[in-house]
Amino acid sequence: GIDPVVQSYVVTEYTEDARIPVFGMKNGDSAFLGRITGGDALAIVNADVSGKLNSYNYVYPEFCVREIELLNMFGVSGNQADVPVLENDIYDENLTVCYSFLSGDEADYSGMAKCYRSQLIKEGVLKETNDTGDIPLYLDVLGGVETKKHVMGVPYTGISAMTTYEEAEKILEEFYGEDITKIRMNYEGWFNGGIYHDVADKIKLVKKVGSKKDFEHLSDVLEENGGALYGNVSFQKVPYTSKRFNDVLEASKYYSGYVVELGAINPATMRQTSTLNWYDELAYYMISPKFLSRYVDKFTDKITNYEISGICLRDLSNVLVSDKKRTELIDRQAAKQIVEAQYGKLAATEKTLMEEGGNAYTFGYVSDIIDAPVEYSQFYIIDEQVPFYQMVIHGSIDYSGEALNLRDADIDDALLLTYIEYGCAPRFTFSWEDSSVMKYTSSADQYSTCYQTWMSDAVNVYQTINGALNQVQGAAMIHHEVTEGGLVRTEYDNGVSIYINKTDKSITEDGVTVDAMSYQVKGGKA
User: One Pfam family, short name please (predicted)?
Assistant: First the structure.
């Protein structure tokens, strides 16, 4: 992703972040895989096809070792100009790219993913698991939500309970009644004032959703049935409403000295500085890496007092931010090392870690990733998307994409087949109360969360995807291809192959007949 300190205020496009520092190229029976092992946080990858600038396909990394910033200057007569401001020092550490050369059957993207995965396993970053059986169901549950309230006509920000702990248990009971028990719940809005909570230097539970005893009992219920409860926490994005954060001292700064303050995207101007109808909690500061460890230390001291399964990290792997304060500049590579150190502290609490996003430098610490990349950025130059990221982590880290009930598009057969192709578990966002309660709040983007509306769909989606993937849970994805006949074939190291037909006609290949918009599992249990 882009460093928030250097990105434009105006968001012109939505793109999928590159989360692993690799690139590669194939030509005939030969291929290479490049892996950026030094300076990856400062790198971008350039790639293009032949016939535009030259007669070659090419791909190579580029490193930004000295940032530049444009400072807008105003003259006394009303004139203005952008003056370039350059950092004093360049990045003076090693920039390293390691190349692996592949040939024969290994000279394709499957071989590249296998090569990268084997490197991570050898380095101890990834571990092969023995997890078998059903796939998990990821369930985001909305707890305390910030709402505008009034006392004698005076407005103030209060908390409304979208789902209490007891209500969350009732939702679980309905899933258990359908024999769906492996539920991993990401509970949002459980402490410090709701979803857009105050800085996490202490833990003050939201009373309206329940007590500490209720919270821990919910965790016990999930664990007894093979699931887990994760308390959602944000460390790097600090809401404007935070009462215990000194933005002048602790927020990242531009090189010009201004504090980095961002917000929601205004759909009219596309500027990411909006509070959307004065919901101040949507505006946020980016905490400086220098002060990140202070808040993580205090949080880790407090979270050990709560008997819950784990912690869900909302932005620690989703955002990598530098600090351009001229006297104490922290570049992105140093920020990455600081973030890695915080993962070590959080892992030391012996809570299991879930994260949103999933950048490669965090793989060694987490058991689950939500919002993993499932769809590509849809650039015109791209011919086809492949599950490269999934081939690297499948069998070591469980993962899911975005919440299916909050997508812009419907849940159709093509989407379910893509999830089966990518070995991806389903995910939903639920609340006990109707979504209309959040209509005029900072959580209005959670526009379709009432569990009663989605329960039957969630059950059907899970049963469909689990029917295909429960035989490859915990197995490594070793090969993926589109066959000449038009089937998509995904192979796993336990001998199971899944054939997926995304066309409108039946296809027979390798002795397997797959109906239109359907799948078949070969080599698994009868």
Answer: DUF5696
User: In angstroms, rounded to a whole number, what is the distance separating the alpha carbons of residues 36 and 22?
Assistant: 6
Residue type (1 letter), 489: R
Would you list the DSSP string of 147-180?
Answer: EEEEETTEEEEEEEESS-HHHHHHHHHHHHHTT-
Going by DSSP bridges, is the β-strand pair 154-161/144-151 parallel, antiparallel, or unpaired?
antiparallel
Residues 6+ positions from 115 with CB-CB distance below 8 Å: 33, 100, 102, 106
**Model pTM score:** 0.95
- Indicate whether 330 and 460 sit together in one domain: yes
Q: HSE (CB half, 13 Å, CA atoms) of 53?
A: 7
How far, in Å, are 30, 114, 383, 525 from residue 27 at the CA level?
A: 5, 18, 17, 38
User: Are 189 and 228 in a shared domain?
Assistant: yes
What gap in Å lies between CA 445 and CA 150, rounded to an integer?
23
Q: What is the CATH number of the domain that holds 157?
A: 3.20.20.80
Q: How do residues 429-452 score in pLDDT, each as one tens digit?
A: 999 999 999 998 999 999 999 999
As a residue count, the chain comes to 526
> Is residue 190 in a domain?
yes
**Interval 356-414: pLDDT, tens:** 999 999 999 999 999 999 988 888 888 889 999 999 999 999 999 999 999 888 899 99
Instruction: Look at residue 93 and tell me if it is in a domain.
Output: no
The whole-angstrom separation of Cα 205 and Cα 213 is 11
Q: How far apart are CA 455 and CA 461, in angstroms?
A: 10
How many other C-beta atoms are found inside a 10 Å radius of the C-beta of residue 358?
Answer: 24
How many domains in the chain?
2
3-state DSSP call for residue 66? Answer: coil
Residues 516 and 465 in one domain: no
CA 24 to chain centre: 23
* Structure-token match 């299916």, residue found: 404
Domain range enclosing 510? 483-522
Residue 464 lies in a domain: yes
Both 301 and 337 in one domain: the answer is yes
**Distance of alpha carbon 301 from alpha carbon 314, whole angstroms:** 19
- What six digits make up the tokens of 447? 């526009």
